[in-house]
Fold:
Amino acid sequence: MNWPIGPYGTSMGALLLMTLPIHWFLTRDEPESRVGLRDLPREIREKGYGWHIALYLLMFLYKALIDHHNEPMKARVGGFTHWFWSIEGDWTLRVQEAFENDLLTDILSGHYLFMYLFIIWFSPMYYMLSRDERMADKAALNYFLIYILSVPLYLFFNVEVTSSYIPGMDALLYHDDFTLRFFIDNDPMDNSIPSLHIGLSASLLMINRLHVRELGISISDWRHREFDLFIMANLGVYLFSIQYLGIHWVFDVIPGLMMAVVTAGFVHAVQPVVRARRENGLASLLPDRRQTIAAIGVALLCSSWLMIGVVDGAGVDEDQPNFRFGEGDVVIDAIEVHSLNHPVTMTVKNVGEHSVEVMLVDLRSV
Structure:
């Protein structure tokens, strides 16, 4: 099917169209707290939401930059998927085989693609439209921080999706033209560690609980309890779908949860400082001497570990496959183009027992 504005543009349009209906549903018990579209520009000015918008625009450009450098760096850092295969084996394959169903595949694929983008966008928007600037701050900071923390793992610890490594595992997420084109254009397909579908949702839930504890109330009495349940329900679906669709390893959940713990604690602590900057000035956001020294020390330590232990390290062992499939399997992978002036060079080395046939397809000619 020919999508006039492409799969990504179509998804963004659906995201915008769903914002108000879902917000109205979740706030049906307190319509008086809603911000109308006519009043939204004034609400943005009065509550100082300009930096939220700027932050999301910055993250859009930053992600494009990271994805652009992901593939070229793999020549020096390789991949570590074989470590996870040695630990987990074919557990996710058994999950897929036990539940595989065409209707379930369609539902979970649509949910996986759309709902993650929707939660990224909707979380701060929900609180803005509900007149809760503190939680709007926390939701925006949550996405910013958890993605920033994940980037080093995405760039230096490449782990392929399970459908690219477990023989017999079907890439159910990429089963139709829409989702295939969406992920080829927007997903390097080797950013399994950590799972931000899990991490982002879990950190939002943790932030909610830190917030109500500070307020001295029960989560069940919180005015945003239905939104909390909405996030919780989506997290439950993700825990199953990331395995069923042939995307994440079970172990990917652990780093996602670890990122969530760090992100939630930091965001909860720093949000009052960020909110008070309007009275205290931008200088109040700068770290003190102790915090600066600690940050530099951690950055140097992590950078040294990456340069010594990862670059040209265990991940570039040519005898370890970074892509596997069984005899008779047909597997789709994407070759990313990063320059209009330089060709893409791809080397295929068969380290298995059976012959391999490779066919290159230009999507523009299909």
